[in-house]
Amino acid sequence: MALQGRTPSTRTRAERRNALLAGYRPLPGTHDEFIGPDGAVRPHWEPFLAEWCALSTDELNQRFGLADRHVHDTGVSYRVHGDIDERDPTAGERAWPLSHVPLVIPGAEWETIAAGVAQRAQLLSTLLDDIYGPAKMIANGMLPAAIVTGSPDYLRPLQGAPGAGALQLYAADLGRGPDGRWWVLGDRTQAPSGAGYALENRLALARAFPDMFRSMNIERLASFFQGLRAGLVSRSKRVEPRICLLTPGPLNESYFEQTYLARYLGFLLVEGGDLVMREGRVHVRTIGGLKRADVIWRRIDGDFSDPLELNAASALGVAGLVQAVRQGNVHIANGLGSGVVESRALMGFLPALAEQMLDEELILPNVATWWCGQHRERAIVLDRLDEMSIAPAFRSMGDGLESGPILAGELPHAEREALRARIKARGMDYVGQEIVRLSTMPVFQNGRLHPHPVTLRVFAAATPDGWKVMPGGFCRISDEPDARAVSMRSGVRSSDVWVTSDAPVEQVTLLPTADRISIRRVTGTLPSRAADNLFWLGRYLERTEATLRLVRALLGRLIDADTAPGRADTLKRLANLLVAWGASPGGRGQTPASQASAALHSLDQYGSANATVREARRTASVIRERLSIDAWRLFGDMQRQLTREGGKPPSAGEAYEIADRALKSLAAFSGLSQENMVRGPGWRFLDIGRRLERGVATCRFARHFAETTASSDGLDALLDLTDSQITYRSRYLLVPSLQPVLDLVMLDPYNPRSVAFQVDRLDTEIADLPSLTDDGMLEAPRRLILKLAAECRTAEASRLDRTSILLFEQLLMGLSSAIADRYFLQNSGPEGSRMTGIA
Length: 839
Description:
Layout: H1 10-21, H2 46-53, H3 57-74, E1 77-78, E2 94-95, E3 103-106, H4 107-131, H5 136-139, H6 145-149, E4 169-176, E5 182-188, H7 195-208, H8 210-215, H9 222-234, E6 243-246, H10 255-265, E7 268-270, E8 275-278, E9 281-286, E10 289-292, E11 295-298, H11 321-326, E12 331-333, H12 350-357, E13 369-371, H13 375-383, E14 388-392, E15 406-407, H14 413-425, E16 430-434, E17 440-445, E18 448-463, E19 466-469, E20 474-478, E21 492-500, H15 528-559, H16 567-580, H17 592-601, H18 609-622, H19 629-642, H20 652-676, H21 681-705, H22 712-721, H23 725-731, H24 738-747, H25 755-767, H26 780-794, H27 802-824
Parallel strand pairs: 3-21, 6-7, 6-11, 11-12
Antiparallel strand pairs: 1-2, 4-5, 4-18, 8-9, 9-10, 13-16, 14-15, 14-16, 17-18, 18-19, 18-20, 20-21
Pfam families: Alpha-E, CP_ATPgrasp_2
Domain Circularly permuted ATP-grasp type: 102-477
Domain DUF403: 526-824
């Protein structure tokens, strides 16, 4: 909803305009996107500036807050390469650095950019077909063989394979030079990233400036993603194909984007371990058996895709994938060998290749590039070394070039001479490139607009109707005034790209037309890995709740001024449970209060609430595409509530409030899962994990407090821990008594916190899970839950003791193992060799 305010006067608008532009000076020798050579604002920026000047400083800050909250609430994040903590995949995540000013480009100018990007995508696609096919360009001398065979991205086992280098998604990094022309700085053909971030930038700024977005007729992005999805669907041999997005996993720099795109486009997010080869085809390991994968959109490097024929050290790929490609049984997008045309060494040859292969001149020129694998070009680079940017010809190879190009003229003399020697010794590994000064665009800082260097990434997708270019993209904006290089690392921002139109823009949606919708009520395939993580997410959340209830019960009794009989023994038992739980340290010098504080905040104690919430968030990060924004926000809220940054430990009262607030957040997640999640296989495994963990925790609580010598205070603590106080008080007008309490928390099928209730729910959920066998025999999880249900229904509270309660606990733990063996370790043991239901 647009934020409403009073219409400012002409004078007020003029004052705000002057304040925004005060001191805005384009950098010398650069093209500025906002200000023309005459010092005036460029015409296509005037509508944007006029809308901004209609907003007061407070209103602008409100709009910025809307955009920033969208980024925060949806968890938009990225990683810098190497910034990884394997213990916590979310620890190294950085909030997406959104700039609030978009790059505005008029539609007429965009037509040239789009035509140039589509032409370049077609050229590289045609070249890939030739490289992995007849290799005519090498045979006729248009392309040196060493540029192909010397590249680590050329995959020899794919030579001659159908669709070996098929290009489905292409991205070009563009920069505008001082003359106003757009230049191609680099090609992205391996596994182009950023399309999802471009969409998130659009959603954030459209939320902040909806009125401006409509009035300026900004081109929509949905039609591009519609074309991308249609292009992938068209590559399959089946009417309703199963399309997978193959991710390297949660430690990848752009994992958020991959999960976001999988959810947005309706694709199945998989890791290498989720896929397996059977009978020459690729299948997804699911809870219902192996399901055929028709199209795989990969986000891992080509040589990591198959440890059998490519990189044996890869743990990310699928053994046998190359064979499936050779047999034409799966389509890979982009093709496994597509990265070979991404090399800088190729850029100097593309103008001639365009004329030869397309009979056209390049619409968008390259930045001037000299490959040092040729004698004449190497001599030019060495002669003009101080004037050039030196970069790896192929992938980064070390020798100081790990992070990309370096400016040779700025190196110390000794390093520059060492670089010269390396180029002389092995020139094919290097290119020299002209140093291009980038254009600048406005960034809002301290109430004013300031010019900063910018590059533009534009995407093109192969669709059934040809190449379709995203009408926008995203720009990367440097915080430094140096306009010679920009890369997405610390100190760089990103923003949306607004392509304006002279006419109202057609509304496009990813939803098909009504007459083409095939109604279904099943969510779809659930990979075993996703089921495993949903199961453990439920367990970690329930484990966190149990710890918080222990802490609250302990602190509540410490705060209580009235001392009930047996209170000292109850406090000791609660503290001992926290130690046995792994939530707090034991030993001398520990008080109940310090143990409760550790159980809340400590990361050194694996069972603390903070530690288990982090484990829950880590587990959730692997299945991010299956969780709502509200659910993800709750994880962040709980983690913030339980994180204590040094300082004085909280008092007993403060700690009690922290535990209470965290329990409310957990209750909110439980409400989301119960009311918002479709009752499909994913929800079932989440619920099974919760029920199992709750049943185990209740058994442990009962073993510690429901002894024949238990005090009324101890039984009262047991009712607190199982959240059964109100039910007990409504049934029994007396102090807690052993047998009624045991019946309520262990055997009562009407109490949603009892073990019997958990068993009934488990029985229902497990009965609805798919079976792998068709011989009529019960599988292990079903056999165990039926046995457990029979025990619950025939047990009597008067006969329950520590031993019989322990038996319930062990049966629940055995059920957990049986579920894991059946659904989470498919094809890893003897059962895998006789799996049925391949589809």
